[in-house]
UniProtKB/TrEMBL annotation:
It comes from Rhodopseudomonas telluris. Belongs to the terpene cyclase/mutase family. Residues 319-641 form the Squalene cyclase C-terminal domain. The gene is shc. This is Squalene--hopene cyclase. One of its GO terms (molecular function) is squalene-hopene cyclase activity. Pathway: Secondary metabolite biosynthesis; hopanoid biosynthesis. Residues 20-309 form the Squalene cyclase N-terminal domain.
């Protein structure tokens, strides 16, 4: 066992064992009394700005103290370029900047204040607010800043389209589906924000904002298809006023029925902020008062997303208790070794009843014969369980039952396994929430300027599902699902040896996920795919011994990995990946372990300001505050465990 010291960090001379103990103690200190973990989930300025603008749209009483705290947060996150980025120290983003400026002006910041002048100049110097994305344009239309000609037509009659139609709700992702339905109703009603202060942002445009038409083609969109869909939009715009009233009434009723079936209590529709906010504004536009139960419930749910730090506040896009609890449990398993099952039993018992067993969610539209059996990401989101969370929970339950057999765990694992096997897409991969959600042409419609309308299979989720099935004893020889999954992973490896990471940033995350899966599936560590990935990981290690990757690596003009300052979470992913590939004795691993030991704080934690989670590539990123608390512990403990045994093989799926 390595007991070396390091010469930097908060506590000089802390051994590997002491680092593990300190990190474990710190992590356990965050566990709630009922056994679960939930950490802050932070996005960019858009969500807190939208929260402020939603309140003023509704004409709610001014929450002076809360808005002042949100203003502190928005001012602090303003970039050196004058605007607001999507990630810590990131590049200027137009939509985030327009919304943040609008929210600060609404709160009461003087437009001649230095930070407002810098923001305005940054926006105007880049062509002005006309370059805002589609969601920002809908908000501007509802505030009367622009007209509704500036946004795509969203006829609510979409609700009536047959399944064979080129565009139906089942053909788009869950997040788009839940967001677009209340937005369609708002598009019909075209409400105007109450905006009691009469705040506008015409000064952010280089032209009369009411003269603005439909947004331009996005870089990811095909010129021919965009023009085709643009023509369809023009036709719909012309005929929309003449839609038969009986069909419009039926479509509106169907939209409301869709939403009310999925309202999900205070956890909210989709359990994510955008559709929840849209639903509240929709009910307001329909004339339902604040005390109307569906509206009131969604509104309370939004308040539960607020984080108040005393001197500042912000709104989270959602919460991540299932994900946090499952991953933290894996880290504690590694740290506690023989006592791991006992240590995490309260956490696993908290997870167990949250398995969705009695509700066929939207995923069943394309997998009608599959029984439900997954876990969601949030506390409750029964219509939208996801495969990534489910696989991670199952692997934790499986580890526990091997040390402490539990029939309840056996039953839960069997149902989850059945669901995941039934959710494999035709290409052999797995997506996050749906099966065969691959109608790629839809990313060319005017509404999809963000390029995130779909939920197709991805390397990281596929890897997690392969890891789970392999940990449960399946091999490519015994399981067609595993064989197809491994083949999917082989064909998606990039020329440099890495794999793309859809839900974590980016190639480091994807490569960690896949190397864990290939190891679990029994692929020989000398296999060329694994050797190439090991060489790539070693080649991108930073001089300080850590690993770091910038969000710009998601650029459309693919250039591969983009180096950034080292982070604890990305370093942990790289270390776990190398160890899964049989490289615990690799010099890069030793340097990475020293980096983690050397950057650990006196409290046993790691400071990590950078965003290493991905919501939507190039559009929306996440800072999981738990990542720097459980992933480094996981890597340190695994290093100790492998070095202290004769076997250097990781025997679990993650």
């Amino acid at each position: 066992m390595d007991s070396g010291i390091y010469s930097s960090g908060a506590e000089r001379g802390r051994t590997l064992e002491a680092s593990i103990d300190a990190a474990r103690s710190a992590l356990m200190g965050f566990r709630r009394n009922d056994g679960h973990w939930v950490f802050e989930l932070e996005a960019d300025a858009t969500i807190p700005a939208e929260y402020v603008l939603m309140r003023h749209f509704l004409g709610e009483p001014v929450a002076t103290e809360l808005e002042a705290k949100i203003a502190v947060y928005l001012r602090r996150t303003q970039g050196a370029h004058g605007g607001w980025p999507l990630v810590h120290e990131g590049d200027f983003d137009m939509s985030a900047s327009v919304k943040a400026y609008f929210a600060l002006k609404m709160i009461g910041d003087d437009i001649d204040a230095p930070h407002m002048v810098r923001a305005r100049e940054a926006i105007r110097s880049r062509g002005g607010a006309i370059h805002s994305n589609v969601f920002t344009r809908f908000m501007l239309a509802m505030y009367g800043v622009t007209t509704w000609r500036a946004v795509p037509v969203l006829p609510v009659e979409i609700m009536l389209l047959p399944k064979w139609s080129p565009f139906t709700l089942t053909k788009i992702s869950y997040w788009a589906r839940t967001t677009i339905v209340p937005l369609m109703v708002l598009s019909v009603l075209k409400p105007l924000a109450r905006n009691a202060k009469g705040v506008g942002i015409d000064e952010l445009f280089l032209q009369d904002p009411k003269s603005i038409g439909l947004l331009a083609k996005a870089p990811h969109q095909n010129a021919f298809l965009f023009k085709l869909f643009g023509s369809i939009d023009a036709v719909l715009r012309a005929i929309e006023p003449f839609m038969p009233k009986k069909y419009r009434k039926l479509a509106m009723e169907k939209a409301l029925a869709f939403l009310e079936e999925r309202l999900n209590g205070e956890d909210g529709i989709g359990a994510i902020f955008p559709p929840m906010a849209n639903a509240v504004m929709m009910y307001d536009a329909l004339g339902y008062g604040e005390d109307y139960p569906p509206r009131a419930c969604q509104r309370r749910g939004i308040e539960l997303l607020l984080v108040d730090r005393g001197d500042e506040a912000y709104c989270q896009p959602c919460v991540s208790p299932i994900w946090d609890t499952a991953l933290a449990s894996h880290a504690v398993f590694e740290a506690d070794r023989a006592e791991g099952a006992q240590s995490v039993r309260p956490s696993l018992d908290w997870l167990l009843p949250r398995q969705v067993l009695d509700l066929k969610g939207d995923w069943a539209a394309k997998a009608p014969d599959v029984r439900p059996g997954g876990w969601a990401f949030q506390y409750n989101n029964g219509h939208y369980p996801d495969l990534d969370d489910t696989a991670v929970v199952v692997m934790a339950l499986d580890r526990a039952r091997k040390d402490a057999p539990n029939p309840a765990y056996d039953t839960a694992i069997a149902r989850a396994r059945e669901w995941i096997e039934g959710m494999q897409s035709d290409d052999g991969g797995w997506a996050a929430f749906d099966v065969n959600n691959t109608e790629y042409y839809l990313n060319n419609i005017p509404f999809s300027d963000h390029g995130a309308l779909l939920d197709p299979p991805t390397e990281d989720v596929t890897a997690r599902c392969v890891s789970m099935l392999a940990q449960l004893g399946e091999t490519p020889e015994s399981s067609p699902a595993v064989a197809r999954g491994v083949e999917y992973l082989r064909k998606t490896q990039l020329p440099d040896g890495s794999w793309y990471g859809r839900w974590g940033l980016n190639y480091v995350y994807g490569t960690w996920s896949v190397l864990c899966a290939l190891n679990a599936a029994g692929v020989d560590h000398q296999d060329p795919a694994i050797r190439k990935a090991v060489e790539w990981l070693a080649s991108i290690q930073n001089p300080d011994g850590g690993w770091g990757e910038d969000a710009v690596s998601y650029r459309l003009d693919y250039r591969g990995y983009e180096r950034s300052a080292s982070t604890a979470s990305q370093t942990a992913w790289a270390l776990l990946a190398l160890m899964a590939a049989g490289e615990v004795d690799h010099p890069a691993v030793a340097r990475g372990i020293e980096y983690l030991k050397g950057t650990q704080t006196e409290k046993g934690l790691w400071d990590e300001q950078r965003y290493t989670g991905t919501g939507f590539p190039r559009v929306f990123y996440l800072r999981y505050h738990g990542y720097s608390k459980f992933f480094p512990l996981w890597a340190l403990a695994r290093y100790r465990n492998l070095r202290s045994t004769n076997s250097k093989v990781v025997g679990v799926g993650m």
